[in-house]
Amino acid sequence: MTPILIYLLGMTVVMIIVAGIGIFWAIKNGQFEDMEGPAQRILMDDDDPRIPRYADSRPKKR
Fold this sequence. Notes:
The protein has 62 residues and is an all-alpha fold. The protein is built from two helices and no strands.
């Protein structure tokens, strides 16, 4: 085998191990518990109607 092939196979194994550790960490910490919540939350209208939409931020002239 050529040295580059050995290097590439080694890097592939390392990347698979890192990906596996990342997936197990995410599952352990509950990253996949609520998959629908963020998708529904973006559709909710939580704007406060008491706040003026186009507030004039410039100071008023006297």
